[in-house]
Amino acid sequence: MVAERRSLILRGVLDVCLLALLDTEDPVYGYELTERLAARDLLVSGGSSYPLLARLEKTGLVRSEQRPSPAGPPRKYYSLTAEGRAALAQGRHEWNTVATSVTALLNAPAPHAGGEDNR
Questions:
Q1: Are 34 and 46 in contact (CB under 8 A)?
Q2: What would the pLDDT profile of 63-75 be if each residue is shown by its tens digit?
Q3: How distant is the alpha carbon of residue 78 from its chain centre?
Q4: Which of 13, 66, 80, 110 gives 74 a disulfide partner, CB atoms 3.0 to 4.6 angstroms apart?
Q5: How many Å apart are CA 99 and CA 101, to the nearest integer?
Q6: What percent of the chain has pLDDT over 70?
Q7: CB distance 66 to 76 below 8 Å
């Protein structure tokens, strides 16, 4: 159950995490994004980032370009668009608001039996 809950939470913020990883000067190779998520223990599944990158591109938040690879087929590199930067700022704000509220609730002392908060 814990792993399932964690997976659901991550799915809800994975798009913002990808946008944050793309908030760089240089475009980032798709597999490198997956590695960066995995290094932070934020990967839902190995293939979860590619469909999400495709959706982010389709909605205009990221752009991609093919570049030659030193070994093998060309690689797809991703970067943020202006809309993506705006979505990242909004996503950061939303996450911080929710995270602050949830953290406060989960770390609050338990209400005493018979108190106003006991329903």
A1: yes
A2: 999 999 888 899 9
A3: 15
A4: 66
A5: 5
A6: 91
A7: yes
Nearest residue to 54 via CA among 86, 76, 87, 23: 76
CA separation for the pair 112, 52 (Å, rounded)? 44
- The C-alpha atoms of residue 38 and residue 45 are separated, in whole angstroms, by 9
- What is the distance between the alpha carbons of residues 83 and 94, in angstroms, rounded to a whole number? 16
- Cα–Cα nearest to 80, from 34, 18, 8: 18
DSSP the chain: -HHHHHHHHHHHHHHHHHHHHT-SSS-EEHHHHHHHHHHTT--SSTTSHHHHHHHHHHTTSEEEEEE--SSSS-EEEEEE-HHHHHHHHHHHHHHHHHHHHHHHHHHSPPPPTTSTT--
- The amino acid occupying position 29 is Y
